[in-house]
Amino acid sequence: MSDTAPDLVMYGSPVSPFVRKAAALCIEKDVPFEIEAVDVFNPPQWFRDISPLKRIPVLRDRSIAAEGVTGTIADSSAICGYIEKKYPAPALYPAEPFAYGRALFIEEYADTHLAATGGLGIFRPIFFNAMQGKEPDLDKAKATWSGEMPAILSFLNDALGESDFYAGDTLSIADISVTATLMQIALVANMPLDNYPALAAHYDRVSARPSIAGPFAKANGFIRKTLPDLFDLT
Ligand SMILES: N[C@@H](CCC(=O)N[C@@H](CS)C(=O)NCC(=O)O)C(=O)O
């Protein structure tokens, strides 16, 4: 292990799927990085200064600047685009233009629609309630799983077609985003994907990659201290 701090530091927590997405990119590329914990719900002023939307993650590249706003990038998609440019191998964005466009769309779909539905509708009602000493809102989580998730899971299943990957012939930002975000549900509940066979196979494959499984294990260790068991959504 090196004594010097890595150039890249990500402010946030592996409990965030967006932090895990950017972490997965670094791990796939074998780029050293560290995660520095920030309480995003009660952040210090220095964090507000570098995160105008008060969101995690924010990346700092210490080779650009070790403090202040200079050298920081907010938003996981911007962070991942930066990491790809700075450390191009292995490529995690398709080179072929149409596949590149598809990858960006699937990433956006995961970051917005899937993250909002699974995060606000399932993860938060269970985990945030538990954190506050309240009963998990299982009714809300179950209603989201049965009401809103089927259309999303069907889309993600069908978007794979016959392919192992969402865009191009190899792992890309699209596969990482979908899996990291779906795993937010798996942090608090059993997530049966039997009705979505292509998605289930993709999820099993991608979630087993060390780049995804490693950061997830850290998040899981944290969540299990508050919620020892997973809930059933059906
Ligand atoms: N589009 C942003 C979304 C980041 C985001 O929503 N992060 C959540 C944590 S998972 C957050 O910081 N939430 C703080 C809040 O809701 O106040 C990205 O991709 O980085």
Automatic annotation (TrEMBL):
Domain GST C-terminal intervals: 96-227
Pfam families per UniProt: GST_C_3, GST_N_3
Domain of life the protein comes from: Bacteria
Every GST N-terminal domain range: 6-91
Entry-linked CDD domains: GST_N_family
Database matches in PANTHER family: GLUTATHIONE S-TRANSFERASE GSTA, GLUTATHIONE S-TRANSFERASE-RELATED
Protein name according to UniProt: Glutathione S-transferase family protein
